[in-house]
Amino acid sequence: MDLKITDKTENKALGRTEISCELSFEKAMPSRKQIREAICAATGVAPELLVVVSAKGQFGTNGAKVLAHSYKDANGLKAERKYLLVRDGLAEKEKKQAAAKAPAKK
After folding, report:
1. Distance CA 16, CA 74 (A)
2. What is the pLDDT of residue 80?
3. Quick check: 59 and 35 in contact, CB under 8 A?
4. In whole numbers, what is the pLDDT of the chain averaged over residues?
5. Torsion angle of alpha carbons 17, 23, 27, 31, nearest 10°?
6. Which range (43-47, 72-76, 98-102) has the least confidence?
7. How far apart are CA 39 and CA 88, in angstroms?
8. Is there a domain that residue 105 lies in?
9. Where are the strands (E) in the chain, listed by range?
10. What is the pLDDT of residue 51?
11. Each residue's pLDDT tens digit, 13-44
């Protein structure tokens, strides 16, 4: 797997750095965890402060475009969408409460 960082943009309003990458791989698309580890190794960001927003494979090629957000501290993760944190294993999925329903009449 080969990772090339194409763009880094500082978003001061949200306290994060938006990282755009191009990824090339041999056989199958790498998992989000593998992509996150590769970006962390290339940028020096701690894994618990990096969120992979999207990883879009390009049809017919062994490449993908990846967008990730890196934060300066754990408080910055509150700005990120909850489902992305769950996908990356940084948060637990909230379980829905079962509504107490009366049994249906026949």
Report:
1. 11
2. 85
3. no
4. 86
5. 0
6. 98-102
7. 13
8. no
9. 2-11, 16-24, 50-57, 63-71
10. 92
11. 888 999 999 999 988 889 989 999 999 999 99
CATH code of 81's domain: 3.30.70.330
- Confirm whether 103 is domain-assigned: no
Residue 98 located in a structural domain: no
CA distance 94 to 52: 20
Whether 5 shows a pLDDT value over 70: the answer reads: yes
* Tokens describing residue 92: 């637990």
CA distances from residue 3 to 21, 36, 51, 64, 100 in whole angstroms, order as listed: 7, 11, 16, 10, 50
User: What domain count does the chain have?
Assistant: 1
Question: Which helix (DSSP H) or strand (DSSP E) does residue 31 occupy?
Answer: none
AA letter at 106: K
Answer yes or no: is 106 within a domain: no
Rounded distance between C-alpha atoms, residue 56 and residue 63, angstroms: 9
User: Nearest Cα to 70, choosing from 79, 60, 62?
Assistant: 79
Segments forming the whole domain that contains residue 40: 2-87
